[in-house]
Cyclic nucleotide-binding domain-containing protein
Amino acid sequence: MSKPMFPALAQFVAATAGRNMTKAAYVAVTVGVVSMVLLTLDPAYEAAHRWVDFLLWACLVYFVFEWLVRLRHMARQGRLGLYMSSSAGLVDALGALAVPVALVLGAEPKTAWLLSVLWVLKVVPGIPGLRQLRRVLVLESGPLLSVLVIFLMVVFLASVAEYFLERDVQPQTFGSVPAALWWAVVTLTTTGYGDVVPVTPLGRMVAALVMISGLGVFGLWTGILATGFAAETRRDNFLKTWESVSKVPFFAALGPAAIADVTHMLRTMELPARTMIIRKGAQGDCMYFIAAGAVEVDLPGKKVQLGEGAFFGEMALLGNNMRGANVSTTKVSRLLVLDLVDFRVLMARHPDLAETIDAEAKRRTLENK
Amino acid sequence: MSKPMFPALAQFVAATAGRNMTKAAYVAVTVGVVSMVLLTLDPAYEAAHRWVDFLLWACLVYFVFEWLVRLRHMARQGRLGLYMSSSAGLVDALGALAVPVALVLGAEPKTAWLLSVLWVLKVVPGIPGLRQLRRVLVLESGPLLSVLVIFLMVVFLASVAEYFLERDVQPQTFGSVPAALWWAVVTLTTTGYGDVVPVTPLGRMVAALVMISGLGVFGLWTGILATGFAAETRRDNFLKTWESVSKVPFFAALGPAAIADVTHMLRTMELPARTMIIRKGAQGDCMYFIAAGAVEVDLPGKKVQLGEGAFFGEMALLGNNMRGANVSTTKVSRLLVLDLVDFRVLMARHPDLAETIDAEAKRRTLENK
Amino acid sequence: MSKPMFPALAQFVAATAGRNMTKAAYVAVTVGVVSMVLLTLDPAYEAAHRWVDFLLWACLVYFVFEWLVRLRHMARQGRLGLYMSSSAGLVDALGALAVPVALVLGAEPKTAWLLSVLWVLKVVPGIPGLRQLRRVLVLESGPLLSVLVIFLMVVFLASVAEYFLERDVQPQTFGSVPAALWWAVVTLTTTGYGDVVPVTPLGRMVAALVMISGLGVFGLWTGILATGFAAETRRDNFLKTWESVSKVPFFAALGPAAIADVTHMLRTMELPARTMIIRKGAQGDCMYFIAAGAVEVDLPGKKVQLGEGAFFGEMALLGNNMRGANVSTTKVSRLLVLDLVDFRVLMARHPDLAETIDAEAKRRTLENK
Amino acid sequence: MSKPMFPALAQFVAATAGRNMTKAAYVAVTVGVVSMVLLTLDPAYEAAHRWVDFLLWACLVYFVFEWLVRLRHMARQGRLGLYMSSSAGLVDALGALAVPVALVLGAEPKTAWLLSVLWVLKVVPGIPGLRQLRRVLVLESGPLLSVLVIFLMVVFLASVAEYFLERDVQPQTFGSVPAALWWAVVTLTTTGYGDVVPVTPLGRMVAALVMISGLGVFGLWTGILATGFAAETRRDNFLKTWESVSKVPFFAALGPAAIADVTHMLRTMELPARTMIIRKGAQGDCMYFIAAGAVEVDLPGKKVQLGEGAFFGEMALLGNNMRGANVSTTKVSRLLVLDLVDFRVLMARHPDLAETIDAEAKRRTLENK
């Protein structure tokens, strides 16, 4: 499995050696996986097996190459061990080695290439908010585990009961406990294929109980996750926002305690350059503070620039709630969004802030006369 | 497809050109869709195809007509572009053009008319609380998306695994990855048609894992939505109520900070004229403040009128909780409802308010002696 | 259908004319419904049709009788109209008239008696916490309705799509939109009977989308209900507790504002006489205040009586958390339960209360030396 | 069924007579249950029936033995009655007696041994967080029960309706109300086996309603559990943490009210000896207080020991959030974890604490220069 080493390509990959997923990688994953699927579709494969094979090999080469580049990159930084033991490192290794190893071990090609499904795992680190989900699962692992144990216990007891009740009537489907286990899982998850169904009156009563407890198990599960998630969301938002808040002079006036409050009220928004934030004439239900970057207010006569620390969109919250002008970013910006509700609560708690905003609003109205 | 332009009709529609749905439109949607359904029911259609065809055409004409009227209306207001790019505008256009275009493109009529199902989309903007749901979906889109990606990844890995495990035993159902994908979706959503079922022991173990993670995915989903929804509900109620609170002199005494509290305690209620709010002898668990409109208290001897800013229903919260008299609106009114629980908390926090209410209650009792 | 009027029976029923369900009524409902079920079980019915018929008639007579008694009772109190228009009144009327009317109208007896299933409705008013559930459904009706509308819209669009995609391949199952609607509902609720299953690739893609949005719809639904329920639970508990709190001298010291806090911390418990509340040697994680009734502490040497306003079980919260003695009610009692967590928060916020409790605890320890 | 009494074994078990599950017991449960499963797998059993029988008997002997030992142990402590009436005692008794009794009563061996499934119940008390789940179920039992009653009522009404609508078309599946009940449960739980499916238009409408209310019932259920669970989690954590907090001098400064706050912010973590808590170079989002035990900070030059009451990991929260050194426990320890979010809120509310931490941080930085 020879592999040419074009410097250009090397540079290109080296440049992104550190990052989790490059655009190229996304393309490779998609192409590779689609080809793998086609490989299993006999008609499609017969029609275009040359192409499919070529694409699969191309993707494989790419991933092997990417992996090697990363290994070298990490080795140079002396983080080789850390990388290889990291989940990202393992996924890269799997993606690069699984198929070749299988082929070398003499697996039937069509089967070996199925392993290229592992390439999709490369996408995982890129999933938005995955960290958040993981934290919930970790923190709530205790209760979640106990629900799982309960689940398994119900499955087990139920399947033995059904085996006892149904084995004589349906020896082929309830002929052993493992067979009954299959039924129990299918039933307790309320999937209900219908391939295995109790027919004796008693068997059906047990089944009914299993279904109902299925709802219960499920409800507990959801309840736990909902609880954990609510907490996590608040936390995540707080962390994102905290840094920025202190940077906005407007809030500097507040004591640290008040800032902690305010942080819970704000939402952070990351925007690329030249993005429209406010559309003239639209309903307005929040105001914005510029934590980083800059925006341009598109007023009738002129264009006004606002930089870090400035705020805008307050007009709509004070009087009529119609946006008076278009506003869009001029560079990559981080904005803090203050919702109408929190705006009012905040103004109520801190009259001084209310005055600052009113004053500014007045000034602007006069100016734009 | 010529279209007569009766001035009367024009007026009628023009009058409602701005509104989303007129009564006529609701009728048209219902009639049109029902006819479309009948069109597909061969026996019904054979029996009354003349009528069905006529109704379908009538509805189509109506929608085309409505669309044109709106176009003209918007054009006059110079909001043509805004309207045509708005979702409402697109739905109107689809409703008016889909079927004709299909017919013109020579689609078989019975098929072309199926497109009239798009008419139901006109109902969407009228759904109560839809805005609220959309906000939840937008704000929680991050986590929801990541759950979706996890969902897809599980589906994909599972289907490849099953394809590998089952293809030899059941070539017709697990003969390719796409076929296995179908099984995976049906299973992970716990739908479980039972048309495709793994039979090998390993295949069933994988399936069991898929079902259980199905519950997990679902639980996460619900957890996220529940979290988002809780926040949204509070916000929505606050916005509805805030404006009105400040208009009620009773609360004016409170400082702005306290008003923010109170707003969280109140619920807004919009009522048409001549609606009974309180029925004599019923259990009372809340009191009312009149933010707009007026009510009439039906006392033994006389009828007492209460106008904006007044409150009523406090008696039931102070002593015995039986309503003492019928109360009903005399005109369209907006009421603020203070629940028994919040009433007590509020009275506890603001003794002055408690006194005001007690005094008023006493006065009324004397008066009505 | 003549009906003897034994004074004894009349008294018996009259005594309970006001109440929703008497023990007798529960028996009648159970017996009646079971007999109705047996009526449909041919073997069972052939075996004992005489008995079944007799029981059914007996129950019917009972319900007719109960209804008449209530009518008279209400008429005397001049609340006849209120009663007949109330849900309880309607259910009573249905239970009494449905079967006879059906028989009179010449319905086949076996069918007519099926209507006796309506008797189960009499149980509804007795369901614990139903009021709470209803309030949730009412308050959240807005969002719930909009989810329902979305549900129906998805069902409708999906079924038309499937009809279009599958009608040629499976004319018998997807031969008309109504047929496809059946499939859509079965799928969107993730029930998945498997009697109607799409087979075309496109049809399956649509189906997959329907299943996934099924999870979404369901998630929203649950989210809304969870939100509403959380609020309702707090409210319900507050109302149950508030009255009692003010009656306990221990809390009288606190200002009204503090009492509102405390009320949120306490849980009310209604107990019959001679019920064991605390078992010696058990783990203790809460203390009790007697709002009404009395308890007996079973100490080594003697039995100590505690009456209204007294508290007990605090020892376990102060030092070692093992219960030191058995405590049981001597008459019907209402207790306020203060959980360990809230106990600590409360003591922290109100040192004076902490002292009162410590003092009392010390006194008791000395006394019981 | 004679049973030898080796002193060694006796000691071994006696040592653990008090505990719920010993390692040996876990092994016995696993082995026993697996053998029982094999017993039902004819091929497997024929292959190794000698082994299977032997293992089953061995496990049985173990459990009988364990039970007797516990009985004696409890008898000596005079807690025999308490033990035998406790759930643990009942489970032990069942595990020891069920199979023998069945065999004595002359049940067919293969059937009698099925009762060994009861052995899994011994695992229950060991499930983490089960107490928490049980508390939720107990506290929310009211609403949960009413949902259950509603569930049963819907099932019942629906099945009678379907029986009436479908009995003529499908006498074999809807031929009696009990048969229809089976359908109703399968449908309302959205399991949907598909073995019984309504075919008449009206029957399908009823079925659709049942499915939709199935979602509703389920939603309520989940909502209730989610609500209860949220409360329980907070409580559980508070109890775990409270004791420890007061032991940490750092917090002693705070008044009791503030301590109650802090307790809600902290999370308790129990760690075995020689466990790595902080890995150098990792992201840091929390700091630790040592409630019990001791840790070792692995600094470039030296190893620093920290004992009870000390805190560490604050550096990452103050400046750059990279961990500066490895930290691991030297003995079994209980740590209090303060999350970044709560850290900031806390520092904001209590500037004095902030100073203490800053001072300490400075001191350490200088020291480690």
Observations:
- The two ends of chain D are 74 Å apart (CA to CA).
